[in-house]
């Protein structure tokens, strides 16, 4: 724990696609069972890392999977249904509005749910130096997408989706440079997963990987 309390505190918004339909590019690992287990584990480890960050006061998960919502809530986060299914950015804007209603003193941060190697201290390192007067984002490891977006409530306008790095730049958001690898390492395919494992994945992903690849 740090000696000095962070001056700005955050509410992390984590949109979670129902694991049964998420991470389709991991399907080759198994006929669906391992893919779903991994998708769930990624979200659990992401949420857990956010909950353990000193700069984070609340984590709000948005998902239409009622069963998995209960699983995630058991970790200590708040979970609500997705009110705008099929439109991630609208979902996040609605979640930011709900977070502001519940916790008006917290700054909203959107974090992707597929960061199984995310470390709490790395998240603190990013959030701890932010200038919240301007929307900012973290590009993914490939330098094409986005893993994190933060802005004050009245400026919160994320542009996740294909080519989101350029979309956020075009919208005037500041790209954060020199960000720790664990904050950028999202997982969409087996190569991404191998890179995350090299960084060191969280406990739920470690167990899911053991289940998917049992030792002979």
UniProtKB/TrEMBL annotation:
- InterPro entries according to UniProt: CofC (IPR002835), Nucleotide-diphossugar_trans (IPR029044)
Is Iron-sulfur found in the keyword set? no
Q: SUPFAM superfamilies from the entry?
A: Nucleotide-diphospho-sugar transferases (SSF53448)
Keywords carried by this UniProt record: GTP-binding, Nucleotide-binding, Nucleotidyltransferase, Transferase
Q: Which residues cross the membrane?
A: none
Among Gene3D superfamilies, the record links this protein to: Spore Coat Polysaccharide Biosynthesis Protein SpsA, Chain A (3.90.550.10)
Highest taxon listed in the record's lineage = Bacteria
Coiled coil: which residue ranges?
A: none
What GO MF annotations does this protein's record show? nucleotidyltransferase activity
Signal sequence segment: none
- Is Nucleotidyltransferase found in the keyword set? yes
Spell out the protein name for this chain. 2-phospho-L-lactate guanylyltransferase
- Which source organism? Nocardioides conyzicola
């Amino acid at each position: 724990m740090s000696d000095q309390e962070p001056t700005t505190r955050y509410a992390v918004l984590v949109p979670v696609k129902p694991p049964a339909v998420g991470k389709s590019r991991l399907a080759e690992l198994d006929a669906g069972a391992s893919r779903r287990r991994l998708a769930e584990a990624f979200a659990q480890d992401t949420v857990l890392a956010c909950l353990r960050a000193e700069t984070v006061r609340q984590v709000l998960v948005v998902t239409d999977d009622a069963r998995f919502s209960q699983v995630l809530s058991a970790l200590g986060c708040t979970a609500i249904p997705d009110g705008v299914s099929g439109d991630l950015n609208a979902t996040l804007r609605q979640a930011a509005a709900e977070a502001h209603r519940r916790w008006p003193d917290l700054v909203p941060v959107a974090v992707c749910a597929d960061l199984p190697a995310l470390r709490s201290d790395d998240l603190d390192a990013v959030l701890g130096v932010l200038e919240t007067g301007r929307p900012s984002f973290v590009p993914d490891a490939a330098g094409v997408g986005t893993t994190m977006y933060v802005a004050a409530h009245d400026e919160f306008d994320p542009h996740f989706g294909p080519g989101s790095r350029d979309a956020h730049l075009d919208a005037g958001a500041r790209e954060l440079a020199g960000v720790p690898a664990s904050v950028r390492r999202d997982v969409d395919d087996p190569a991404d997963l191998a890179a995350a494992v090299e960084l060191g994945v969280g406990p739920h992903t470690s167990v899911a990987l053991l289940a998917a690849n049992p030792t002979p």
